[in-house]
Amino acid sequence: MVNVMDKLYEYLQSVHLFAIKGGLEKKNVLRHVILERFEKGIVLAVSFDNVEALEKTWKLHNDDKLSEAFQDIVVTSTTLDLCQAKVISLRAKLWEDEYTPCKRETASRSNSVVSIESQEKDMAMLKHVRNFQRTRIREIVSEMRDDEAAIERGLGEFVLAVKTALPTFVTTIPTLKDFLSHVRAARKKKDANVTLLDRFIAIVERQRAIFDEVQRNIAHPLAQVHAYCEKDKQRRLKEQIRLSCVDMRQKLRMDNNLTTVKHADWKAKILPREEDLFLGAISLVPMGLEKLLDIDHNVDEYIAEYPVNIQ
After folding, report:
1. What local confidence, expressed as pLDDT, does residue 296 receive?
2. How far apart are CA 251 and CA 281, in angstroms?
3. Confidence of residue 244 (pLDDT cuts 50, 70, 90)
4. How far apart are CA 112 and CA 59, in angstroms?
5. Which positions ≥6 away from 58 have C-beta within 8 Å?
6. Residue 20 within a domain
7. Do residues 122 and 170 share a domain?
8. pTM listed for this prediction
9. For the stretch 221-252, what's the b/e string if a residue is b when 16 or more beta carbons lie within 10 angstroms of its beta carbon?
10. Domain termination site, one of 107, 142, 160
């Protein structure tokens, strides 16, 4: 009879490790830790890009926070259904007799760059990133250019629609949550042009989905590429890609402070006295496009540094 442990192991064999790594990246834990494979007994083999990553992982373990880091990433409703279980509680465990030699080995690792061709899983990650870039990024850039052009063409109408929708005492829109709240209230006004406001909200929601997709298919797979296969320039580029995703996803949060979001070129498109009302919101669209173009360019530079053609 197959028990829950066996079912869980079978399920984890089918899961892309970069998806689990992505969940950890979003929590900002186990950075520079490479998830290598699951072994029977639900043993997760990992490696470390540097000693600092090992030390931070060891501290999570000693602080009893390592299990918590994995729990909601590994155990989802899908996991429970496939394992035919109501509850699965993970308990992560590290052993000191493995920690010490691992630390010694990581500290003494050569600075020589290891051939990427010798790392089958790393190559698979790079091919995934390249394929996503070629099949989706170009398409997304085109969509975002259209969105930016639409906002710019209808900026005057948009400004008027927002002014009509807002109560007279409102002089600033601090967050997207506040903007959405005003749009809901405006639906009761006969003279409010909520169609334009709904269109803007749809564009912002589309950007949020786009950067989730980009992070999932570029930043997270790259986080599974060993640092010892990279040059210093590639490590910097990879970090820039990661930060671009993190930064834009933060800006697109419903509770993010819009008064800190300012696109220099679009600042000239509205009156100074109306900046607090509009600049943060309308800056999101061109900023998103610029971030995506930066990511696309950095991926090209990152992959070009490898001496092998990544297709």
Report:
1. 97
2. 10
3. very high
4. 29
5. 94, 99
6. yes
7. yes
8. 0.93
9. bbbbbbbbbbeeebeebbebbbebbbebbebb
10. 107
